[in-house]
Each structure stands twice: as structure tokens, then as C-alpha cells.
Design brief:
Layout: H1 4-9, H2 16-40, H3 47-58, H4 66-76, H5 78-82, H6 91-94, H7 103-121, H8 125-130, H9 137-154, H10 157-185, E1 192-199, E2 202-209, H11 212-221, H12 223-247, H13 255-305, H14 321-343, H15 352-381, H16 388-406, H17 408-413, H18 416-448, H19 453-481, H20 500-513, H21 519-540, H22 549-557, H23 560-580, H24 586-618, H25 634-654
Antiparallel strand pairs: 1-2
Length: 658
């Protein structure tokens, strides 16, 4: 790289072409993510794929820089974030409140909530990014990708050699994960390997998604989070599932069906309780640094406006706190109009004003708390692995209790309008959460590549608005073509989309408002969380160990098939780093390991985005299927391929070089 002075003199960062390219990538990825989220309950992170695409396209311009590429990935990253609102919004169709997705209402809820999420995290940057030891695995991976691309073009001969080696690592990892995902898509490799069995009168099992991207995420998360998630797996599948299946036996169900049903209807709520108390504890621990961050932001604004004051360094310039406050306040006006209009003309019209005021207060206050927790979780395990749907459960609990209290008389007649209103408010809070998640992850990437914070914050607002604009038409299209499972509105196809997260959130809202939710299980989860907090605090006193309680709660709540590959990746990364640590080139080998696993995320993400487009175009759930579903050798082939890919990639990264 050039000297700092030279770099500043020719800094190309915020450009029209970069913003337009970011918007284009954001629109395409958002549409794909909406479909994937409704089908499998997960979305694909877009920061790293966007960075790769940006570097490839902008390489045609001689003045393109690492900072401009960072702007592109920041705008595009909103696709993976905003698409997550489909974890709630389809619930409005499922409960019969909507027959489709009105554009301006849906767009407004997503966009205004997303802008609030960005604004709320501006004063948190110092506390959660600049002055925090959080690993931010995806933010670090995105920065490594950007640095490699920049090193090849702009560095010295030695830097270029390192950059080319790093780029090779990313390409190898990307090719391996894309090829593996392709074989899963053809059904030659099983997409999931699982086994279930009886344990006395109960049942349990374990399974793993055959995803190399999840392996890479585990490596980047580190061993502490990996062990926390392993603890959560053991609590869920070695303790809770066997006990509860024995207490609630179903003789007619297979071991897999019995274990799956108990985990879905009971154990996940234990996980939600553990997440809830862990989130509250996290907020309590963050109170001082968050307050310091807010005070620092206010002080910085005051210094900026003081006569003769020294200007802030570029790397410390956020959107001015005064603008943040004004924008946040102004967002509540159109939000109030949308909420009031939603209530008008229906059975809750008489309660429109108190419900609207209560909802705005809840969004303003709970939104900031949610932003802080989500930012912390993004730093802990990455934005795509952060269980925002778990926070959606907490948000819908709070919203349901508020509307049930205000609308008690209406609830006696028909609880469904109140359920729909609770879902609407929860959808806004989820938009706040995912935008906060994404903003802090992007700001970590920016910190590592020496970007300007306020520019990233500004363009993420653009990305949020662009992503929000494509969500309503895609949802409407899929509602008409397929419909959603459990919805009174049938689609053209006879294969409705499962929308698993929206179904769960809707069930919780109905349970709270109709007074038939199992609070006992959530209470058990809270007790489990308290025990985990105590253990973590005791371990941290050793200065060597920790057991993040949020990580444990997440592993109880998330499917084992998603959690186990992350644990495997964390252990594999720890073993790899120990193996190369004492070598003269140990640090270089560790960096190559990070780049290889970053490539795993890149390749699978890009492939899944392309596959999502193919699924939509062909209207086939398995357009690449070459063999019948249930192909006998598929699980064994998948395991052999998985182990082989790990061995070859870690072997290449860890080999000694001159």
C-alpha cells in the first residue's frame, strides 16, 4: 500500500458508481434471500459475496480502491439483513389479517425500522466496535477479502505475493464450498445427515447440515463460542429432548418425529428463555460502555462545533449525534401514520390512538435495547448466525402483553386482530434488529480497512431503503404463486412455502394473547440462563476461559443441524491454529486458514443465491436433482466429501512455505 498521506490524497471511497453497484447487488440478493428464508427459515449473508463481485467489476476502473469496494459491500449487505423481516411479516397473512402485502405499508415498516436500526447503532460504534474485543467473524472475513483484493493490485512485490497467496486461498475455499453445494443440489450428496433413536421411554438424536460455510463460520467464531454452542447442544439433545419425550410419549411417532416435535414445541422455548435472560444480562454489562459511547458521541459533536477545535480524525467521524436524534424522532411520525391506518376501519378502530401511542413508545425504547443486543451478538457470532428470530420471540412477547393489556375488551370478542397488531409491531422491531446487526458488522469491516464510519452509515441507509423496496413485490409474488403453510389463502401451486419462523412467531403471539402459552418452559429457560451466567462469570475470573451464555442459549434455540457444523468448525480451527502456532510462519499460516474458511462462506453463499434464482425461474424445489430423493449412498458420500474437503483445505493452508 502507499503511505498514509498518499493514500489520503487519492482516497476514492463514496462514489455514485459504488452506490449504484451496491444497490443492484442488494436488489438481486434481497429477492433471493426472501425466497430462501420462506423455504428453509434461513437467509444468506451478502457482505462477502458482494465484496468479491465488487472487486471483479470495479477492477476495470484504474482509480477503484479498497474503500470503494467496502462501500459496495456495505450497501449490498442490507440484502441479507432486511430480508430477515420475512421471519415475521408472512404471519399477517397466516393469521388472516392480510390477503396480500400492500406495497407502501410493507415497504414503510421495513424501511423505517431499518433506518432506526442504523441510527440506534451509531452511538454504539465506539462501545461495540472500536473499544471491544468482540471477534466479529463475518466482519473480519469481509475485511480479509477486501485486503487480499487490494494487496494484489496496489501493494509492493512482497505484499502482492502475499496477496496472491491469500487470493488463492479464497478461491480454493470458494470453489470447494460451491462444488460441494452443487453436489448437494444434485442430491448426490445429502444436504443433511441425521440419526434418531429411542432412549428408554424417550427419544433423541443428532444431525448436521452438510454446509462448509457453517464450518467456516465456526472457525471464525473461535473455540469459546464453539464450546458454548456445544454446551447448548448437550442441554437440548442429551438432557431436554430425552426427558420431555419421555414425559410426553407418542407411541405412534417414530424417534425422529417424537424428538423433532418436542424440540419444536417445547425445547425451543427453553432456548428462548435462556436467550432472554442472557440478553438482559448482556445489556446490563453493556450499560456502562454503551453510556460511555453515547457520551463520547455527544462530546465529539460538541468538539466538532467548538470554535478552534481540532477536527476529529476521519476514522472517528460518525453521523453527527444531532442528526441521529432528529432522524430517529422523525422516523416515528410516518411509523405512527402506518400503524394508525392499519388499525382504522377494523375492529380495533376505537383503540387506534392508545394502541398507536403504545406501539411507538415500545418501538422507540425496545428498539434501542434490541439494537444493542443484536450488535453484541453480531460481534460474538456474526450477523448471519445471530438468531434475530430469537429476539423476535422476545419482541412479540412484549408486544403481545402490551396490546393484550390495552385491548382486553376487544380480546374477549376476537383475539386475532390483536395478534395481527402484535405481529406488525414485532415486524418493525425485527427490522430495527437486523439493520443494527448489519451496521455494526459493516463498521467492523470498515475499521479494519480504515474506512470512514459516517460514509458507511449513510450508504447503509440507502441499502436499507433499496432492500425494503424489493421485499413487498417478491412477497406478493410468492404469496400468489405458492402461498404459506397454514394460511387461509391458497396459492396457485399445491406446494405452499413453509415460512417456519413466521409460523412460530405467530403461534407465540396467539398463545400470549389467548393465554395458552407455556410460560413454564420459558421460565425453565430463564433458570438455565441464570446458571450459565454464573458459570461464565466464574470462568472469566480465571482470565483464560469463558462460556458465553448467549452462545449456549442460541444452540438450544437453533436447529442442531445448523449448530453442530459450527462446533466442528470451531474445534477444527482451534486445532489448526495450535498446529501452526510455533512455526516461524505461524501467523501467516493462521491468516491463510482464515482466508480459506472465508472462501467457504463466499462460495456457498454465491452458489445458494444462484440456486435460489434458478428455483424461482423453474418453479421447482430441486431444479438440479439428478438422482431420486432418498438416494441411498448420499449420506455416506456427503460425509466422505465433507471430511475430504476439510483435510485438503487445511492441509494446503498449513503446509510450510519458504
Amino acid at each position: 500500500m502507499t503511505t498514509a498521506t498518499g493514500a489520503e490524497a487519492r482516497r476514492v471511497e463514496l462514489t455514485v458508481r459504488g452506490v449504484l453497484l451496491g444497490i443492484l447487488i442488494c436488489l438481486v440478493f434481497t429477492a433471493a434471500n426472501v425466497y430462501l428464508g420462506l423455504r428453509v427459515g434461513l437467509t444468506v449473508a451478502t457482505s462477502i459475496p458482494a465484496a468479491i463481485i465488487s472487486m471483479a467489476l470495479l477492477s476495470a476502473f484504474k482509480d477503484s480502491t479498497i474503500w470503494e469496494n467496502n462501500i459496495v459491500q456495505t450497501v449490498a449487505s442490507a440484502a441479507g439483513a432486511m430480508a430477515s423481516v420475512i421471519f415475521v411479516l408472512p404471519g399477517l397473512v397466516i393469521v388472516g389479517a392480510w390477503t396480500g402485502f400492500p406495497f407502501w405499508t410493507t415497504f414503510g415498516l421495513c424501511a423505517i425500522g431499518g433506518v432506526l436500526g442504523v441510527m440506534y447503532t451509531v452511538p454504539l460504534r465506539r462501545a461495540l466496535v472500536s473499544n471491544s474485543p468482540l471477534p466479529y467473524p463475518e466482519g473480519v472475513a469481509a475485511a480479509e477479502v477486501l485486503k487480499v483484493g487490494s494487496g494484489v493490485r496496489d501493494g509492493s512485490a512482497e505484499q502482492a505475493a502475499d496477496g496472491k497467496r491469500g487470493l488463492t486461498a479464497i478461491i480454493l475455499g470458494s470453489a470447494a464450498s460451491a462444488l460441494y453445494a452443487l453436489l448437494v443440489g444434485t442430491r448426490v450428496f445429502a444436504g443433511e445427515v441425521a440419526g434418531f433413536f429411542r432412549v428408554g421411554a424417550g427419544a433423541t438424536g443428532i444431525g448436521a447440515s452438510m454446509s462448509l460455510a457453517l464450518l467456516g463460520a465456526g472457525h471464525l467464531m473461535g473455540i469459546a463460542v464453539g464450546m458454548a454452542m456445544l454446551t447448548g447442544l448437550l442441554i437440548a439433545w442429551v438432557v431436554a429432548v430425552p426427558i420431555l419425550t419421555a414425559l410426553y410419549p407418542d407411541a405412534a411417532a417414530s424417534a425422529a418425529d417424537a424428538a423433532g416435535a418436542v424440540w419444536t414445541t417445547k425445547v425451543r422455548f427453553i432456548g428462548a428463555g435462556a436467550i432472554a435472560i442472557s440478553a438482559i444480562w448482556t445489556l446490563a454489562k453493556l450499560a456502562v460502555p454503551v453510556w460511555n459511547g453515547l457520551v463520547g458521541a455527544l462530546a465529539a459533536q460538541a468538539r466538532r462545533g467548538a470554535p478552534g477545535a481540532r477536527a476529529l480524525t476521519r476514522a472517528e467521524q460518525d453521523i453527527p449525534i444531532g442528526i441521529v436524534a432528529v432522524v430517529s424522532a422523525l422516523c416515528l411520525i410516518p411509523m405512527g401514520v402506518l400503524i394508525f391506518n392499519f388499525l382504522q376501519g377494523g375492529p380495533l378502530a376505537g383503540l387506534a390512538i392508545p394502541l398507536t401511542l403504545a406501539a411507538l413508545a415500545y418501538i422507540a425504547i425496545a428498539g434501542f435495547l434490541v439494537a444493542g443486543v443484536c450488535g453484541y451478538m453480531a460481534g460474538l457470532i456474526g450477523s448471519s448466525n445471530s438468531p434475530v428470530s430469537g429476539l423476535a420471540i422476545l419482541a412479540v412477547l412484549g408486544a403481545s402483553l402490551i396490546v393484550a393489556t390495552i385491548g382486553a375488551s376487544a380480546m374477549l370478542r376476537d383475539p386475532m386482530p390483536l395478534v395481527a397488531f402484535a405481529l406488525l409491531v414485532t415486524g418493525v422491531l425485527l427490522a430495527v434488529a437486523v439493520a443494527a446487526n448489519d451496521n455494526l458488522q459493516d463498521l467492523k469491516t470498515g475499521q479494519l480497512v480504515d474506512a470512514t464510519p459516517w460514509r458507511q452509515q449513510a450508504v447503509l441507509v440507502i441499502g436499507v431503503i433499496a432492500g425494503s423496496a424489493v421485499i413487498p413485490p417478491v412477497l406478493e409474488l410468492l404469496n400468489r404463486s405458492n402461498g404459506f403453510a397454514g394460511s387461509p389463502m391458497a396459492g396457485i401451486s399445491d406446494q405452499p412455502l413453509p415460512a417456519p419462523q413466521a409460523t412460530l412467531i405467530s403461534t407465540i403471539a396467539k398463545g400470549v394473547i389467548s393465554h395458552d402459552l407455556d410460560w413454564g418452559l420459558i421460565g425453565v429457560g430463564v433458570l438455565v440462563g441464570v446458571g450459565l451466567i454464573v458459570i461464565d462469570e466464574l470462568l472469566r475470573r480465571t482470565k483464560r476461559y469463558s462460556l458465553p451464555p448467549l452462545g449456549v442459549g442460541m444452540a438450544i434455540y437453533l436447529p442442531a443441524t445448523l449448530t453442530l457444523p459450527v462446533v466442528i468448525g470451531a474445534v477444527a480451527g482451534w486445532l489448526y491454529d495450535r498446529r501452526v502456532a510455533d512455526r516461524p510462519d505461524g501467523e501467516s499460516a493462521k491468516r491463510l486458514g482464515v482466508l480459506v474458511v472465508s472462501g467457504l462462506i463466499v462460495g456457498e453463499s454465491l452458489f445458494n443465491v444462484a440456486l435460489a434464482g434458478l428455483i424461482v425461474v423453474t418453479s421447482s424445489g430441486s431444479p438440479l436433482g439428478l438422482v431420486p430423493e432418498g438416494f441411498g449412498p448420499a449420506p455416506l458420500l456427503a460425509l466422505i466429501g465433507y471430511a475430504g474437503a476439510m483435510a485438503l483445505l487445511y492441509g494446503w493452508a498449513g503446509r510450510k512455505r519458504a
